[in-house]
Amino acid sequence: MLNARIKLRHLQAFLEVARQRSFARAAERLAITQPGISKTIRELEESLGASLFERTPQGVALTQAGLTLLRHAGPAMRALEEGVAAVGDTHRGDRWLRVGALSTVESQLLPEAIRRWHAEPDGQNEVGVNVVTGSSAFLLSRLRRGELDLVVGRMTEAREIRDLAFEHLYYEPLLLCVRSGHPLAGTAPLEAARLGDFPWVLPPPQTTLRQQVDSFCVRHSLTLMSQRLETLSLPISRRYTLESDAIWVAPEEAIAEDVSVGRLCRLAIDLEAQGGSVGLCFNASMEASLAREAFCEVLREVSAGRGSGSRAR
Questions:
Q1: Of 113, 74, 84, which is closest to residue 97 (Cα–Cα)?
Q2: Are 8 and 60 in contact (CB under 8 A)?
Q3: Which residues on neighbouring strands pair with residue 178, listed in sequence order?
């Protein structure tokens, strides 16, 4: 039985501090004072007999006890919110599927899956899809807290995947590409040393995709020039590459159409020996909805229809 001293406000405050990693920002989001939220967390810690947060130079971090509580409190709070929302939405028929999307599936897989899902004649067109984009660390943390139904993309290298369930769909390589007419376009064989003479468009530091780039640079003793663009935005990356001499580190599906019509060219050097595993990630502690299961089946069907060049290597 839940400790009677633990109230809903305690859990709300705990989850917001864990999300913001700051008492001040959490207090602002909850529209209460900082002393007020500190008192609320202290009451929760006293009820549990454990410290939930520790101070760090960057703010506050969860203790092991805090991580344990987060793993259970996040999905529980989300389930409660969904229950309350469901009661209010029954008469309107409002339903939503919350999907986290990594850049590796934004261009083809996810849009095609959503299109097919909404086109099916079984009522799925009445379910809205809310797509959240970002880094694997950001999306997986939201999935763990119960704020997303699933995350789709290349993420097996992410530390945050830990106790989440992952289902492999196919392998997706990162490629080095440039605009048509670039000085390196069509050069084969291509020496890695020449890559350091041009700007790069690459994933930001501390992302799983960036780890592959850093590994490539170490293997080839390559130092990148300081003039570079770091972003996960595919539209920004594409436009910058098309209008400059930059080398873009891009997911294969993001450049397939431009390569097929000659706007972009793939460089004759491999960034990685095998692509990363693209798949579906779930929070096993959350009950699977019929909508999620139906959408995942469509994702599997779309993945199975991909060309062999993008699949297991």
A1: 113
A2: no
A3: 265
